[in-house]
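Deliverable D2.4 — example input (structure tokens):
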């Protein structure tokens, strides 16, 4: 099928590759403009752009897809279907109306749960045990379009957002190819979403990563997993930002009746008391501007003592 692909992150690459492998004619790839990255602010190309170049597909990088010249370019492509995976811009009705078969979206949640920009991150942060992929027909709402296909998977107890994303991406690619085949054969069925069951997964903010020790230990651990690598999980320590990079929750039998945020050091291990009385064991951490270190190395270097407070408690 003659196709335009709109996508930007690594998560979108398997779907683009699957479209190529399935023999669909990709007449153009639209992705975000190159952005400064790293300490040197060097312009970085998106993973989708690199994949498109590798497959000799024309690449377009408009600042605003809704501008008339870009809408006209999409119309002139004569594509039968558009596919969008993490493109990063709101798609206007003027674009939605162009392709004969509409726009299919590979969305990384079981809609209508987790509509929005960060479904993988919030599903983990909220302690969900299952998630998946939904192939959705784009409409003018926020992930409110009709559902075509779904696939489910378990979220592993210690799985991080990047790890789950790496598993969901090929699932989405496979499901998208199946959906297009169903459209071509006239066998696909569209299902309306139940708006009453909808939850949101808003774009992440820096403050989402700030640890609140009054929360239960498992909640803090879930948020650390979900917000890896950004905004991460962080607190203040002696006036500096301290990022928690790896941790675990002690079993219930290890509960301690300590004030939230209070440090306990035991056998060169670093624990912090949480709001439910359980201990949160910090395994790896990093002070701003410093190297990533183990908890033991941190304790040796900074002489942290029992009873010291780690971070602020609301």
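Example output (designed residues):
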């Amino acid at each position: 099928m003659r196709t335009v692909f709109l996508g930007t992150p690594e998560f979108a690459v398997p779907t683009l590759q699957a479209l190529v492998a399935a023999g669909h004619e990709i007449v153009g790839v639209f992705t975000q403009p190159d952005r400064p990255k790293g300490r040197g602010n060097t312009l970085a190309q998106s993973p989708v752009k690199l994949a498109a170049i590798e497959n000799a597909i024309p690449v377009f990088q408009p600042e605003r897809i809704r501008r008339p010249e870009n809408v006209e370019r999409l119309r002139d492509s004569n594509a039968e279907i558009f596919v969008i995976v993490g493109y990063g811009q709101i798609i206007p009705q003027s674009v939605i109306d162009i392709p004969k078969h509409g726009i299919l979206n590979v969305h990384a949640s079981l809609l209508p749960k987790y509509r929005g920009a960060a479904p993988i991150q919030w599903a983990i942060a909220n302690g969900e045990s299952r998630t998946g992929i939904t192939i959705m027909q784009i409409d003018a709402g926020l992930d409110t379009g009709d559902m075509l296909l779904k696939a489910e998977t378990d979220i592993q107890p210690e799985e991080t957002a990047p790890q789950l994303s790496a598993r969901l991406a090929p699932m989405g690619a496979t499901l998208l190819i199946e959906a297009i085949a169903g459209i071509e054969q006239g066998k696909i069925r569209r299902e309306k979403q139940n708006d009453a069951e909808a939850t949101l997964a808003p774009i992440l903010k820096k403050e989402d990563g700030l640890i609140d020790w009054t929360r239960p230990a498992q909640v803090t651990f879930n948020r650390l997993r979900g917000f890896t690598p950004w905004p991460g999980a962080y607190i203040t320590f002696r006036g500096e930002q301290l990022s928690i990079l790896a941790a675990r929750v002690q079993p219930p039998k290890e509960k301690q009746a300590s004030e939230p945020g209070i440090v306990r050091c035991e056998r060169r291990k670093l624990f912090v008391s949480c709001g439910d009385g359980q201990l949160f064991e910090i395994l790896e951490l990093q002070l701003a501007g410093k190297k990533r270190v183990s908890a033991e190395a941190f304790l040796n270097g900074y002489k942290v003592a029992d009873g010291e407070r780690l971070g602020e408690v609301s």
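Residues 93 and 140 are 6 Å apart (CA to CA).
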